[in-house]
Amino acid sequence: MTLELLAWRRTVSELYAEVRASTPEAGHALWTAGRDELFRTSSQSPLLADDPRRTTGLPVPPYDPAWRVEIPLEPAPRSTRVLEGGVGMRRIGLLRTPWGTLDAWWLEDYSGGLFVPVKDRTAGCTSYGAGRYLLDTAKGADLGGSVVIDLNFLYHPSCAYDPAWSCPLAPEGNVLDVPVTVGEQLPAEDVRLS
User: Fold this and answer.
1) Cα–Cα distance between 180 and 130 in angstroms, integer?
2) pLDDT tens-digit profile of 109-141?
3) What integer pLDDT is reported at residue 108 of this predicted model?
4) What angle do CA 107, 136, 28 make, to 5 degrees?
5) Residue 192: which of 133, 131, 123, 130 has the closest Cα?
6) Considering only CA atoms, which of 156, 96, 100, 94 is closest in space to residue 123?
């Protein structure tokens, strides 16, 4: 199991390296196909064995360049937080996006790294109710540059697929008051209209 987890992490890191080396649209296509392959074939997939997304793939809308910006990481008063699952985080800055301001966190546990979870107005309707992840550099999930915010790459945490997982979720400073209609979505049969 340890070697299988190592292979999963290596594949995810290599996938993001390929994405960073591509144009945003081509990178998004690589990301979607690569994640579908991992979730279908890896023993480390958070999808349950009978989950139909192993066959159909993860629902992800086509790339939309309107959801991508490159912005600086601005200073912010430091704060710390321990989230569900016991993951400690330290706020290291703010990301002022056209859709709202997001806190940028440094994970104190779980391999460290920059972490930006996002919860938006689709949460609990067309996306996981607790939010999605945008940047998690512990997994190599950054897109390079100063800070590239590309909401097309939002993805559900593992706990969205299997309750056996415990995941850090989006705290108050990572909630956008807009519906983000790109990034990974819930399967059509799970969509709840509000």
Assistant:
1) 14
2) 666 678 899 999 999 999 999 999 998 765 554
3) 81
4) 175
5) 123
6) 156
- For residues 140 and 16, give the distance between their C-alpha atoms in angstroms, rounded to a whole number: 6
H-helix or E-strand spanning residue 184: none
Cα(72)–Cα(179) distance, integer angstroms: 23
How far from 52 is each of 49, 75, 137, 153, CA to CA, in Å? 9, 43, 29, 21
Instruction: Express each pLDDT in 73-83 by its tens digit.
Output: 899 998 988 87
| Model confidence, pTM | 0.81
Residue that has been written with the tokens 């064995």 in this structure: 49
Amino acid at 115: F
CA distances from 149 to 71, 108, 136 (A): 7, 22, 12
- Neighbouring CB atoms inside 10 A of 23's CB total 10
Which DSSP string corresponds to 33-98? HHHHHHHHH-TT-SS-TT-THHHH----PPP-GGGEEEE--B-----EEE-TTS-EEEEEEEEEET
Q: Note the pLDDT of residue 82.
A: 83
37 and 59 Cβ atoms separated by less than 8 Å: no
- Cα 81 from chain centre: 19
